[in-house]
From TrEMBL, chain A:
Membrane topology value: Multi-pass membrane protein
Keyword Transmembrane helix applies: yes
Protein name stated in the entry: NADH-quinone oxidoreductase subunit J
Species, as recorded: Actinomadura yumaensis
Record-annotated membrane-spanning stretches: 6-24, 31-49, 55-81, 93-116, 136-160
Catalytic activity: a quinone + NADH + 5 H(+)(in) = a quinol + NAD(+) + 4 H(+)(out)
Pfam families tied to this protein: Oxidored_q3
EC top class, as a word: translocase
Highest taxon of the lineage: Bacteria
From TrEMBL, chain B:
Coiled-coil intervals, chain numbering: none
Entry's transmembrane regions: 6-22, 29-52, 64-85
Function, as annotated: NDH-1 shuttles electrons from NADH, via FMN and iron-sulfur (Fe-S) centers, to quinones in the respiratory chain. The immediate electron acceptor for the enzyme in this species is believed to be a menaquinone. Couples the redox reaction to proton translocation (for every two electrons transferred, four hydrogen ions are translocated across the cytoplasmic membrane), and thus conserves the redox energy in a proton gradient.
Species assigned in the record: Actinomadura yumaensis
Membrane topology category: Multi-pass membrane protein
Compartments (UniProt record): Cell membrane; Membrane
Oligomer and partners: NDH-1 is composed of 14 different subunits. Subunits NuoA, H, J, K, L, M, N constitute the membrane sector of the complex.
EC number(s) given by UniProt: 7.1.1.-
Protein's name according to its UniProt entry: NADH-quinone oxidoreductase subunit K
């Protein structure tokens, strides 16, 4: 085990542990904050894997934007701030069984498939200029399609959030139901 | 670098996300668990991209795309959750049963009526008779049609 492996395993343990705390904590705001820890540890893991640009995008978008958006959602739905015993549903033990089975299956497959595979990882493969070159040369069509997708989801989110527009008045009373 | 470490971390993170999606009731916590699962997938993509030394960097570029799609998904998901909260005053997915088989709509504002018994408790002959009145009831006639169905046995 090299130093790279050790650092990655530590970061991975932090990511998985804070992820587990995120899905088991009784306080919904703490769940969002544990999510920050998990995503930050994953960004560190990307750095160890020499994917620098992905690591910074992870910090910017996940830790910066997504978690803030989730916190906004928590506040706007007036979630209880203190401990709430009602966050877990009744099928917690079935969920635990399914999750353990998933973990066992996937880890077994990975260990059987790539058990002793070892290869040195050299730096420089994930820098911004290399990724930018491949995005704008090879993958430029998916990139443009993705921008259309972002525009569509932006318009959809605005339409869903506005309360002063609704279904047209001549096709039923959908607008009034939406307002109630 | 052993490739088995990133993939194992990714598998564990995915399992944590699966547990969260299945066990949580709050819709926002569900979104957080989905994010954990997406991050597990991203870790796999990056690990295999670095491992195979992809000249086109397909894995890392696809990771960037996945991050963007996840951001769009969170935005839309939160819009939907806020809409549900505005209409139902609750974001607990267990209580949003308006589209359920029994149609009680326990999360709806007009949930004061007693819950109808599940359809499976009736025997098949009753289901035949209920089927005639059912077509209209599903179209929105709602309570009246359901009451006559319940009174039939």
């Amino acid at each position: 085990m090299t130093g790279q492996d050790a650092v990655f395993l530590l970061l991975g343990a932090v990511a998985v542990g804070s992820g587990a705390l995120c899905v088991t904590t009784r306080q919904i705001v703490h769940a969002a904050l544990w999510l920050v820890v998990s995503f930050g540890a994953l960004a560190g893991g990307y750095l160890v894997l020499t994917a620098e640009f992905v690591a910074w995008v992870q910090v910017l978008i996940y830790v910066g934007a997504v978690v803030v958006l989730l916190l906004f959602g928590i506040m706007l739905t007036r979630a209880p701030i203190g401990a709430d015993a009602d966050l877990d549903s009744g099928n917690r033990w079935i969920a635990l069984g399914v999750a353990l089975a998933t973990a066992a299956l996937l880890v077994t497959v990975m260990v059987l498939g790539f058990g002793g595979a070892h290869r040195p990882v050299d730096a420089g493969g994930g820098s911004a200029d290399q990724l930018g070159a491949s995005v704008f040369r090879t993958w430029v069509l998916p990139f443009e399609v993705l921008s259309v997708l972002l525009l569509a989801s932006l318009v959809g989110a605005i339409v869903l959030s506005r309360s002063d527009i609704g279904a047209r008045s001549d096709d039923g009373n959908g607008a009034e139901e939406g307002e109630g | 670098m052993h490739i088995v470490y990133p993939t194992s971390v990714s598998a564990l993170l995915f399992a944590v996300g699966v547990y969260g999606v299945l066990a949580r009731r709050n819709a926002i916590l569900l979104l957080m668990s989905v994010e954990l699962m997406l991050n597990a997938v991203n870790l796999n993509l990056v690990a295999f991209d670095v491992w195979w030394r992809d000249r086109l960097h397909g894995g890392q570029v696809l990771t960037l795309f996945t991050i963007v799609i996840a951001a769009a998904e969170v935005g839309l998901g939160l819009a939907i959750i806020l809409l549900v909260y505005r209409n139902r005053s609750s974001v607990e997915v267990d209580r949003l049963r308006a589209l359920g088989e029994d149609g009680t709509g326990a999360g709806a504002p007009d949930a004061a009526r007693p819950p109808a018994p599940a359809r499976d408790e009736r025997d098949p002959s009753d289901r035949e008779t209920a089927g005639r009145g059912n077509a209209g009831a599903d179209a929105g006639r709602g309570d009246a049609g359901r009451e006559t169905e319940e009174a039939a046995p």
